[in-house]
Design the sequence.
């Protein structure tokens, strides 16, 4: 068995190796959000969510086609 300083060093190495990657969920969310609503500027993840957003929030407007967005 490892004793003393070697044991402490091994525990530190294992703790660093097993530690989760640091980062903000907000940053990860910003990467995933790609499609903006041109009317209210809400960021959505994909075209299907944009169509659903239009049907619930902007029922009098037609959703933009996939080619007209960036």
Sequence:
């Amino acid at each position: 068995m490892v004793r003393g300083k070697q044991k402490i060093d091994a525990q530190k190495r294992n703790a660093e190796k097993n530690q989760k990657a640091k980062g903000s969920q907000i940053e990860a969310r910003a990467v995933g959000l790609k499609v903006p609503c041109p009317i209210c500027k809400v960021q959505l993840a994909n075209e299907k969510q944009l169509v659903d957003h239009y049907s619930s929030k902007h029922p009098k407007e037609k959703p933009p086609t996939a080619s007209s967005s960036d």
